[in-house]
Amino acid sequence: MKIGRAIVYFLVVLSLIWTLFPIYWVTATSFKPNTEVITKPPTWIPRNPTLEHYYRLFAEEHFHIYILNTAIVSIGSTILALLLGAPASYAVARHRISKTAGRSFLAWNLIVRMFPPIVLAIPIFTVFRQAGLINTRAGLILAYQVYSLPYAIWLLHGFFREIPHELEEAAMVDGASILTVFTKIALPLAIPGIVTTAILTIIQTWNEFLYALIFIYSQEKMTITVQIAGYIQEFKIEWGLLASSGLISSLPVLALSAAIQKYFTQGLAAGRGIKG
Amino acid sequence: MSLDRKTGWLFVAPALILLAFLTIFPIFYNFYLSFHETKITYKHIIYIWKGLENFEKIFSDSLFHDALKNTLYFMFVATASEVLLGLGLALLFKTKFKGKEKIVPLLLMPMMLPTIVVTAFWKTLLHPDFGAINSILEVLGLPKVNWLGDPSIAMNSIILVDLWQWTPFVFIFLYAGVQTIPHELEEAAMVDGASTLQVYRNIVIPLLKPYLLIVTLLRLIDTFRLFDKVYALTGGGPGTATESLTLIVYRYAFGYHLLGYAAALSLIMLGLISIVILVYMSYTRGGGVL
Q1: What is the mean pLDDT of residues B107-129?
Q2: One domain, residues A206 and A97
Q3: Does a structural domain hold residue A123?
């Protein structure tokens, strides 16, 4: 039994090292001066810690612009997905459209989330090009509905189904319209679910790369993921910039996902039709 | 239609219209494009009817063959490794030990990071000269490995990165499954004299089967899209060693502006992944709604 214990602890420590070492290494790199990054053998702990890379990231690379762009796009697409998704998922959850129609609608939302995104990109791009939506944040927000809208609809549908509907029925008997019931009773009750949905949708768009790469081409409108991909591909790599930009970009999503830890894994599975 | 139903449809209509434009129209438009060659002018797109020519070209396109082979290899090897490792971790965390609740969130960190950031992390780890992995190998007296530059290794390195990022997802998914297994069942078997191994093989694994199947399908669907990692780490190289289907469609469409050809390729992608989607939808009954 003693040996069994020891093996369990050994494996747990091993999995922790495997998971955390890359994060530690990049964090250490971000604090090393350029000369130290390329010394051999490498220093495992920064010998002359410096903030120069973080300073350069904002002072010279203007990384805050990409953070701002990403924030605008991910918050914008989340708001749009909630505005369109909330009434739709409410109507389906309360069977305001026929059950068959509601089910087909939900099933289609699920299927769409499993499509490779590149498959939808060519037609959307072609139409956006005619409409002058290419290289605009509004265009990217609209294109992101491929991901955000079905995701929000699935998550919200689950939340609306969970809130009790007796109150709504009582209000209906008193002559309240569906719109009143929805805005005055259902929405306030669903606020925790809506916040969770919003956070999960923001994380998803914050991390997105392919559509950001396709739909935006001017430097001043780029999102962080496209900018970081640029750092990765440089012929002469700036290790400090690569490390610091990666860490800075991860902080918001790490904070957001910690805030909804319980829902995070459920969220990854939900919108894919599994209850966590 | 009752008044009730009409308002219901008004609630659904905006989402439905946008969704139809973003997801149904593109499929039909891809079909239309795939039978044409396009000439893009400043204002217009000129379509030239080509029949099945695009599809014929695809079957003799060696880049397509390589990308298909690589994508399937990545899909199956990455998924299989992630499911096996994730299952191992879930079973490991089934045992009681100190600090478990604090360790689990730490193990989940990789999957919360943006994929492109994960890619950036591993760029610094896998670099042949200054990377941490080769430095460790050197310290241990082992030969250095050209992780991304050797065509016979490059795709496996991409799999390693995916493994780091997504094994936590498989782990937490199966860990949730493990916790649904009633303790009484195992205890009863133990009382009846079953060994730990027998308990795992005859009780735990069979009860985890639905979870295993679903998480496998989810990973297959996700790995099929492979793009970010190969785009940023290898650009599909060395040679064509890490070309993926999404990567070549992206390049044909947005690099060479061969919209008809790229549309035909993307339809083939859609056809391939539809098999997995169908299995998924029928197994989960459309996520529980059908």
Answers
A1: 93
A2: yes
A3: yes
